[in-house]
Amino acid sequence: MEQSHPPALDYSQIPEPLREIFETIENELTWLHGRWIMYRQLFGADQQTLDLLNQSAPTFFGMLQFLWLDYVVLEICSLTDRPRSFGRDNLVLRQLYEKLDREAYAKLVEQLEQKGELVEQCCGKLRTIRNRRIAHRDQRAALGAYQTPILGVSRKDVDDALVAMRDYVNCFRMEFLGSEMAFDQFELPDDATTLLSHLEAAVQNRKTQTDAD
Q: Could you read off the pLDDT of 120-133 as tens digits, one per residue?
């Protein structure tokens, strides 16, 4: 299914070297929030929703829950990785800091540096999980050699990371566009609630047929 995109915005006030970088990062972060919102709709709602998933396809939704969470972790890490690796630039949040004119935007540079420290703090655990379990298979971790669990992801871990990331991006956005993006309010016409309504109708229909037999 092809993704639609948010309405076109005027990014002309952003310095040219950073314009396309910011626009792409903002779009990526928007969709990351959209995917996380749908994850929460499915797996972080209430017991009634979880019961519905278990009544419909428990094995499928059980696997989907872990795959979806790992994918969100990968996306967070890919947007907060080092600005370059193996001699090539990476499209990451830190590029908004690295490529700024230090003299012209001294205050913004200082703000991004401070907010970048929080991003690193919030994403550090997720990056460890990405490196040791998702993207690579750390042998000691896989064999349970560590005394404390380090490879589990909580919803709070992801929420904290997303808060720090959007605060960082909105700091940059406010400087040049004079407004913030409500990433956590991103709405989709056909989100997970659409699927849940179809599942609920199917379960009710199955019960009706069973009672009729």
A: 999 988 998 898 88
